[in-house]
Design a protein that fits this description.
The structure is a homodimer of 337-residue chains.
Chain A: E1 2-7, H1 16-28, E2 32-38, H2 40-47, E3 57-61, H3 72-78, H4 83-93, E4 97-102, H5 106-117, E5 127-129, E6 131-133, E7 139-143, H6 153-171, E8 177-181, H7 192-202, E9 208-213, E10 225-227, H8 230-255, H9 259-279, E11 287-290, E12 295-298, H10 305-320, H11 323-336
Parallel strand pairs in A: 1-2, 1-4, 2-3, 4-12, 7-10, 8-9, 8-10
Antiparallel strand pairs in A: 5-11, 6-7, 11-12
Helix pairs in contact in A: 1-10, 3-5, 4-5, 6-7, 6-10, 6-11, 8-9
Chain lengths: 337, 337
Amino acid sequence: MIKIVLDCYGGDRSPSVNVEGAVKALNDNNDIYLILSGKTEELTNELNKYTYDKTRLEIVDAQDIITCDDKPTDAIRRKKESSMVKAFDILKQNDDVNALISIGSTGAVLVGSVLKIGRIKGVDRPAFCPILPTMNKKIVGICDSGANAECDVTNLVQFAKMGSLYIQKAFGVENPKVALLNIGTEEEKGDTLRKEVYQILKNDETINFVGNMESRDLLSGNYDLVVCDGFSGNVLIKSTEGTSLELLKLLKKTFMSSLKNKIGALFLKKDIYKIKDFMDYNNYGGGVMLGCRKTIIKGHGSCKANSIYNCINQAYTIEKNNLREAISHVFDTEEEK
Amino acid sequence: MIKIVLDCYGGDRSPSVNVEGAVKALNDNNDIYLILSGKTEELTNELNKYTYDKTRLEIVDAQDIITCDDKPTDAIRRKKESSMVKAFDILKQNDDVNALISIGSTGAVLVGSVLKIGRIKGVDRPAFCPILPTMNKKIVGICDSGANAECDVTNLVQFAKMGSLYIQKAFGVENPKVALLNIGTEEEKGDTLRKEVYQILKNDETINFVGNMESRDLLSGNYDLVVCDGFSGNVLIKSTEGTSLELLKLLKKTFMSSLKNKIGALFLKKDIYKIKDFMDYNNYGGGVMLGCRKTIIKGHGSCKANSIYNCINQAYTIEKNNLREAISHVFDTEEEK
């Protein structure tokens, strides 16, 4: 049985989407046990809308909420009665609880992961690795994408190893193609950091390093994992998402701008929705904090129930495939050398 | 009279688009004089297709071409007979030649700018500043976007000042809104570099600093200039362009995927073309090397004649509005302090 604690607050549509996604996951998989953290009364009211196996779900009462206006470090230290801190405490104190999922403040989840849960032995810095869909209907991971604004050579090399294992274990990709985010594809491109990391990754036989990648090729499907410092990784993922959103908005505006266009849009409706769906993060899981002693997943703050459901399944798969043990094995062995 | 030297090779459709754009600009504006650098015979053949004022155009013969496969520094040093090096030499040796335009190798243009032309006194590092269209039909500049992979505080502060002047002088934007690219909008976000730069820009009364910007807001139209190190700026612009291209490709594929969709697309054709047009760099000028002793513009390698025409007009406007003098004035005054 995989035990997962779910922070039920902090999202735009919390706690209703959290509860809906939780029940759906529970009903789909008998091997999942869920702990919901949040206001007991509100959660009970939400739960009463559904039928589910009550022996595999419990509520832990938490009356406070961490919002995006809270300073992450202060919030984790002081909001002890918040749904997120309570969830982290449960994850920390119980050996049999495997994973935590939250759609609350990203900053607070990152801080909580480091302060409350801590790193796997040998890991210098945990990295935040979200995924995006690619044009050939695969996925690409971006590691790190914001947990570490400043990185050194060791960090980036570790991100490559952890990310590669993650893509294998969570998505079943054999021998994932790992690329280094850079400002050109040639070996000698980039700053000192990138040049050094390139040489190490090139000679590392434990990963399938395929060279530098320019940001324009992120969605091409030619790469399974992109390694970057948290600053440029954050720029990369947010600009990709931002551009998609702006273009889809523009498209929608065009469709509604005249009677002729509205008629044309009717013909195309079904397939345009497919594009929208394809770009929609609700259809994918969340970002994972790699290198922590437990599995921690951060979903989109504005996500719907389906995304919570996907995050729970993602946590389940990661735990079933022993990602943490695999990372631990790589870094423990390295320390022995 | 503004004298501009145009490198006529190095683009996907060179030299025909270069010549076509040159003639168009010449016919539109009596105050422009053009020097075309390249193979005399080929350029003459192209020119013979058009009618134009022959007293305001000359050819400088250059039989060699710098390609994207050439290493930039080697190419600028050794390919002395290339159209790009000859163009740089003309710009360097003639006080009355104001500007250079090339659609060849970006790396070579950057190296040529620094090695052949040099910096304005007081400028530590020239910066490459391309522009993108925003959703509210304005433009946004990205400074630096690849000339300097490693930057310090002074560099970023200078990029902000030069970029702000550029947006004013080239696009007539009064009091441009200058933002710092960061991984969050709050003042304390980012790495040490960003935190220091934020404090300096906040207290600089010569620019209109509006705070941090996340990459997802680049196209929002809320900002006129984004300041960044060349590494993250390069990631930003290439991911924005890459995502747009991939989505437009997906859209085209959807339109052609069934008879029903084809019919719908017929209704929408005109307005969808408008979106494509709006995202098309051919309708805008090139990126400018800010802080060099002469005006240097780099257009897209795969651009059409219209883009060359726009680059020439952009160079003309910049020179007419004395951008170089304005930058020189700011940095000279600062050195005196």
